[in-house]
Request: fold
Amino acid sequence: MPDRAFLMGVEVRGEQSLFSVDESLDELARLAHTAGVEVVGRDSQRLDAIHPGTFIGSGKVEELRKACQALDCTLIIFDDELSPAQLRTLEQELEVRVMDRTALILDIFALHATSKEGALQVELAQYAYRLPRLTRMWTHLSRQGVGGVGLRGPGETQLESDRREISKRMSQLRHELEQLEQQRALRRRRRRRQGIPVVGIVGYTNAGKSTLLNRISGSEVLVEDKLFATLDPTTRRVQLPSGREVLFTDTVGFIQKLPTQLVAAFHATLEEVLDADLLIHVVDISSRNVVQAVEAVEDVLFEIGAGNKPVILALNKVDLVDPETHLSTTRTRFVTRESPAATLQAEYADVVTVSAQQGVGVEELLNRVDEILAEEMVEVDVTLPYNAGDVLSLWHRQGIVDEEEYKPQGIEVRGKLPKWMMSMIGEDNEGNGHHNGDEEDDGWAYDDEEGEV
Ligand SMILES: Nc1nc2c(ncn2[C@@H]2O[C@H](COP(=O)(O)OP(=O)(O)OP(=O)(O)O)[C@@H](O)[C@H]2O)c(=O)[nH]1
Ligand SMILES: [Mg+2]
Reply:
């Protein structure tokens, strides 16, 4: 029997949010559906401020309790993260299990994790989420036979030993993840030495990232009309029209209100994005909240430190929109508004319209990738101040460091940098760097001996 869930959203007056409360609840319903939950009702409340004790107002709590009883719900899902205390209080007052958006997303991640690393990351994130909420867990209540009201909860001793168990498991998970992370870093360094550029495919969940990778590389990454179908990054080697070899990496999708625990837990996989020379930001142009979704993705990119990478915006699923207006053919909502495609095209330098599924526009996209990567790396020989550690570590990631010497006047570094990083070391494109070539020079020297991707 699937859970019968009631969804609850909140809008705080004067607070900016990307999605309207209704749009966000639509998305929550899709998340619930992906997790195998049946949605039987929804409601929202507009508030001046979040109620510290129960998140929503007390009158609303009572209304919600009655509505839920009438609909025979087994679960109420809040569209925002609740504090441990709010969760506990709400469960007591609503007399039904309560969960929030974060827990729902974690659940979907657990469902979709396939690789060892993915599974470990999700497990760690789940424990991080659960640890402070341990007292309210229903599994404990039922184990103790306390029954529905759940006023007492498990005894302190049980709770303490559970906490210790979880903390122990968490440090074990961190340790295992660290080791996997080192292997991943090693693989990245090896790739970097080979000089093969990396193109990261990023975007909102369900935008069509995996479909695009499959289309470009002829591989068969799982594609599903579900949120967060992909958790683990997949990298494929592809030859561009110019003959240049490039690695394309498909990654986990982003979402608005992405729980910070997940960003932290997926730090190793997100490093793949940080490592990319160029990002293709895949956008579902047929979706209702295109512009907001783009913004949500950018927020996460900034959060993980990848905000200043060169980006091509790939407006995907163009087969679903009207060719004249670029408005969705299945929805009438935008009819009087400017098309989101026009908005994005005005805002971004590199925009390509594609249908990953039908193969439309993909060649143009690859040509654009070729052009951007053709801005070759530049040879540089500089002295960086000691406080430029960030730039230096980015240099290690994005370029090649041949020599690094710590001198009293600063760090003397010699190596190669992609052009877009030149301004960061206080030089414009010319600088005192020695260019390594003319336009026709194939700046990427690769050594295929190690072969592995
Ligand atoms: N009509 C149409 N559907 C597409 C296109 N590209 C992808 N889709 C569909 O969109 C859904 C999501 O595609 P995926 O490639 O799994 O999307 P994703 O961005 O990898 O999603 P996650 O991994 O879940 O974040 C699937 O049902 C695809 O068949 C397109 O160009 N046109
Ligand atoms: Mg995917």
Notes: DSSP finds 14 helices and 13 strands in the chain.
